[in-house]
Design goal:
The protein is an alpha+beta fold and 429 residues long. It folds into four domains: 94 residues, Rossmann fold (3-Layer(aba) Sandwich); 56 residues, Dna Ligase, domain 1 (2-Layer Sandwich); 128 residues, D-amino Acid Aminotransferase, Chain A, domain 1 (2-Layer Sandwich), CATH 3.30.470.20; 98 residues, Glycinamide Ribonucleotide Synthetase, Chain A, domain 4, CATH 3.90.600. 30% of the residues lie in helices and 25% in strands. The protein is built from 13 helices and 21 strands. The chain is globular, with a radius of gyration of 21 Å. The model has no long low-confidence stretch (mean pLDDT 97). It binds glycine. The site of glycine (GLY) has 7 residues, from loops.
C-alpha cells in the first residue's frame, strides 16, 4: 500500500512512525512533513489546507490510504473531495467534522442525545450575549463557535473579563468568522482527560485514555499552549470510568451522528472533565490530539493501518484492538518564549546520543538548515517519549532523554504526569 499522511507536527510524526510498522505498507508520503518524518516517509511540499493539490497528488500517485492529521482540512471538506474521487481516506466528512468545527453544533447534538456536558447557551448577537453576561454566575467559559487554533475558549472569572472576551471574539473578531457566534457555558470542576475512539460510523474501539498538559508552566500555570506533554494510560480514567465514557459519551455521540445523517468515521477525540458527577464533555475534536497521539499510538499493539482501512470502509464490526499494558510519557521541548514570540533557527544538539536507545523522538517545529543540521523552526520543537512497564520508569526515561538534548532557549515542563503520580502513590506503577 501507498499511504499519504497530511501534516507536519509531532502528532503526524507519531502517525508515520506507527504506520511504517504495518506489513501492509510499502511507501509513505507526508505533506508537508518535517526532518523527523523524513526518516520514514517521503516529504512532499504541499500544505494541509491545499486540498486541490493534495487531491491531485493522491490521484496521480494512486494513494491507497490518506490519513489527515490536523482539523482544518477536515472541516474544509477534504474527506468528501477524496471520497468523491474514489480514494480511501481515514477521517470524518465535512458534516461530521462539524463536531469540532462548530461548538454550537456539538452542544446541540449532545443535548439531543443526552451526552453529559456543561449547561450552555449560544449567542448570535453581541448585545444579547452582553445582557446574559451581566446576569449569569461566574466563573464561566466563553467559546468562539468555529476553529480558532486551540485559542477560542476563555475561562472568565467575572463580568469584566467576560465583556473583554466577548469584545475580542465577537466584536473585534480576533478569530475571524469563527467568532460570528459564541457559546457561553458553565465552568466544570474536575480533572481533564482525552479519550480517543476509532469509528467506522457505527462500531467503536477505544485507545488508552491520555492526559495533556496545556499551560506553559509547571503546576498548570500561565497561558495555554498546544500541549506541553502527555501520558497514557491516564489513571483518572480507570476501567470503570472508561466503561462510563464509552456508554454515556462515545456510543451516544456516534449513534447520534448516524441518526443525523452525519456518520462519524475516523478518530473521535473527546476532551473530558472527570467531575464528581461523572465524565462530561469539554469539547469534541475530529482528529488525534497533539501531544496525546505521541503516547497513545506507541501503546497500540494492533496494526493501525488495518484499523484505519476498516474504519474507512465501514468494516469495524470484527475489528480487534490490542492495547499494550505499558505506560508512555511524553515531554515536549519548546522554543523559549512560546506560546508568545520566540526565535527559530537554533541548532539542536544531542539527538545522536539517543540513537539506539529505547526512546522515541517525534519532531514538530524542526527543519534542516543550509548545512544540513537540524534546527528549531516552531514553538513546539520535539516530543520526547519513553514507553516502559511502569509509569515511574517511563517518566524517568523521558526526562533522562530530554536532559541529553539541547538548543538555545530550550524550555520544557518539569512536572509532566504530576497528577498521575498522585493517583499512583503507593502502587508499583
Ligand atoms: N492536545 C490538545 C489538542 O490536540 O487539541
Amino acid at each position: 500500500m501507498k499511504v499519504l499522511v497530511i501534516g507536519s507536527g509531532g502528532r503526524e510524526h507519531a502517525l508515520v512512525w506507527k504506520i511504517q510498522q504495518s506489513p501492509l505498507v510499502d511507501k509513505i508520503y507526508c505533506a508537508p512533513g518535517n526532518p523527523g518524518i523524513a526518516q520514514h516517509a517521503e516529504c512532499v511540499d504541499i500544505q494541509p489546507t491545499d486540498i486541490p493539490r493534495l487531491l491531485e497528488f493522491a490521484v496521480n500517485e494512486k494513494i491507497d490510504l490518506t490519513v489527515p492529521g490536523p482539523e482544518a482540512p477536515l472541516v474544509q471538506g477534504l474527506v468528501d473531495e477524496f471520497e468523491a474521487k474514489g480514494l480511501t481516506i481515514f477521517g470524518p466528512s465535512q458534516k461530521a467534522a462539524e463536531l469540532e468545527g462548530s461548538k454550537a453544533f456539538a452542544k446541540w447534538l449532545m443535548r439531543k442525545y443526552n451526552v453529559p456536558t456543561a449547561e450552555w447557551q449560544v449567542f448570535y448577537d453581541a448585545e444579547e450575549a452582553r445582557r446574559h453576561l451581566r446576569e449569569r454566575e461566574y466563573p464561566c467559559v466563553i467559546k468562539a463557535d468555529g476553529l480558532a487554533a486551540g485559542k477560542g475558549a476563555v475561562i472568565v472569572q467575572d463580568e469584566q473579563q467576560a465583556e473583554h472576551a466577548l469584545d475580542e471574539i465577537m466584536v473585534r473578531r480576533v478569530f475571524g468568522e469563527a467568532g460570528a457566534k459564541i457559546v457561553v457555558e458553565d465552568y466544570m470542576r474536575g480533572e481533564e482527560a482525552s479519550v480517543f475512539a476509532l469509528s467506522d460510523g457505527e462500531n467503536v474501539a477505544l485507545l488508552h485514555p491520555a492526559q495533556d498538559h496545556k499551560p506553559i508552566f509547571d503546576g498548570d500555570q500561565g497561558p495555554n499552549t498546544g500541549g506541553m506533554g502527555a501520558y497514557a494510560p491516564a489513571p483518572v480514567v480507570d476501567t470503570a470510568m472508561q466503561e462510563r465514557v464509552l456508554r454515556e459519551i462515545i456510543e451516544p455521540t456516534i449513534r447520534g451522528m448516524a441518526m443525523e445523517n452525519r456518520p462519524y468515521r475516523g478518530v473521535l477525540y473527546a476532551g473530558l472533565m472527570i467531575t464528581e458527577d461523572g465524565p462530561k464533555v469539554v469539547e469534541f475534536n475530529c482528529r488525534f490530539g497533539d501531544p496525546e497521539a505521541q503516547v497513545v499510538l506507541p501503546l497500540l499493539g494492533s496494526d493501525l493501518v488495518d484499523l484505519m482501512m476498516k474504519a474507512a470502509h465501514r468494516e469495524m464490526h470484527d475489528a480487534q484492538i490490542e492495547l499494550l499494558e505499558q505506560w508512555a510519557v511524553c515531554v515536549v521541548m519548546a522554543s523559549g518564549g512560546y506560546p508568545g514570540t520566540y526565535e527559530t533557527g537554533k541548532k539542536i544538539i544531542g539527538l545522536e546520543k539517543l540513537v539506539g536507545e529505547d526512546i522515541l523522538i517525534f519532531h514538530a517545529g524542526t527543519r534542516r538548515n543550509e548545512g544540513g543540521a537540524i534546527v528549531t523552526a516552531g514553538g513546539r520543537v520535539l516530543s520526547v517519549v519513553a514507553v516502559r512497564d511502569t509509569f515511574h520508569a517511563a517518566r524517568e526515561a523521558a526526562y533522562a532523554a530530554v536532559g541529553k538534548i539541547a538548543f538555545d532557549g530550550a524550555y520544557y515542563r518539569k512536572d509532566i504526569g504530576y497528577k498521575a503520580l498522585k493517583h499512583l502513590a503507593g502502587t508499583n506503577s
